[in-house]
Amino acid sequence: MTSNFDLMKLISDPKIEAILYSIQTVDKTVKEIAAELEDKPSRLYYPIQKLLATGLIQVSEEKQIGNLIEKYYTSRPLFSSNEEFMNIEGELARTHSAALLSHMFLTFNKGANLLKSDLENAEETHAMYTEATVSLSHDEWLKVTEEIKKLITNRTPTEETTDYTFSLLSYETNAKASKPEKA
């Protein structure tokens, strides 16, 4: 089992992130990924094996080409969502915690890298960080989260749009993370 820290460290590697996004919508071979990333296939085999071992990517297809077996890789399950919002909590989150945390780390890492680039270049804004601490009852907290989702869903889109990812992580400020039980 890979620890959350190991997953975060793995995903924060720019090469790993590039591989994951390269095969997000189209399954590709190592050679195709390497061509897209302008890298040598031999330099991608180790990171791809690490991604396979953690379950962040999968082999989607194998084709026999002469004496060789060509593998096609995908990260689609990490990103898949037919809905505008991904809201995973409770037992579903516990059951799929590694995939959920991997997806969260990847999303936050991409936003952090874009924010870092914005801060270093200061030409155009591609990411922003916002934080607010407010006093709410538990029911108010749930309602505010629903209102934010409604605000995004019920907007009136213009003809020319760009996709933006909103990662809203809210938590009780003074809560302490519980330590996992030892087996």
Describe the structure.
The protein is mostly helical and 183 residues long. The chain contains 8 helices and 2 strands, in the order H-H-H-H-E-E-H-H-H-H. It has helices spanning 4-11, 14-22, 30-37, 45-54, 76-79, 90-95, 97-121, 138-153, and strands at residues 58-65, 68-74. The chain has a two-stranded antiparallel ribbon with strand order 1-2. The protein is globular and about 65 Å long.
Helix/strand/pairing category: mainly alpha
The amount of beta strand, in percent, is: 5-15%
Number of helices: 8
Strand order within the widest beta sheet = 1-2
From the spread of the alpha carbons, the general shape counts as: globular
Determine the fraction of residues in helical runs and give it as a percent range.
40-55%
The poorly predicted ranges are: none
Arithmetic mean of pLDDT:
82
SSE series: HHHHEEHHHH
**Computed Rg:** 19 Å
Distance between the termini: 14 Å
Number of strands: 2
Main β-sheet description: 2 strands, antiparallel
